[in-house]
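Input for the complex:
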Amino acid sequence: MSGELDRLIHEPARLRILTILSGVDVGDFNFLLNTLGLTKGNLSSHMDKLDKAGYVAVNKTFNGRVPHTDFRITPEGRQALADYWSALDAIRQLRDNLPEEE
Amino acid sequence: MSGELDRLIHEPARLRILTILSGVDVGDFNFLLNTLGLTKGNLSSHMDKLDKAGYVAVNKTFNGRVPHTDFRITPEGRQALADYWSALDAIRQLRDNLPEEE
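Predicted:
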């Protein structure tokens, strides 16, 4: 069956994260934390997976001694997200494009 | 966070099954098998979960000695599917409804 859903993006929290990052130039850790209502550990784990997949770029800096982490969606992440929504749209349209039942 | 995705429906094969059943009066086992490209065991397992959740109704009959199984989406299944697509739409719209980053 064509249009497989990217399982990395299919996880609801990661779908939310990528969708949010697709709408901003850059999002920092606290912004995502507040917007998503996840725990820090959960958010870190999801960002790590998205980073390893090449879907987000991570930039760590320090404000004095306070670490600050910014995230951006990469072109690959943007494409994967667009493909994901297209695949979901195709599923949604299954309802109206069924073969005849014999 | 509101609009949690129903995990039972979130599984891609089950999302396809429910979406297909929402577009037909009744679908039999072979029709779903051919449309979805799943194995018989996989399809049975998914239908069993959807049945237990009350999202589909199962009707088993015999044509002579040949068993025949029909499935229909229930009103509860139709509502759950509509809620699922609404929740997904809400995620998709996150992109355009972000809080200001401080």
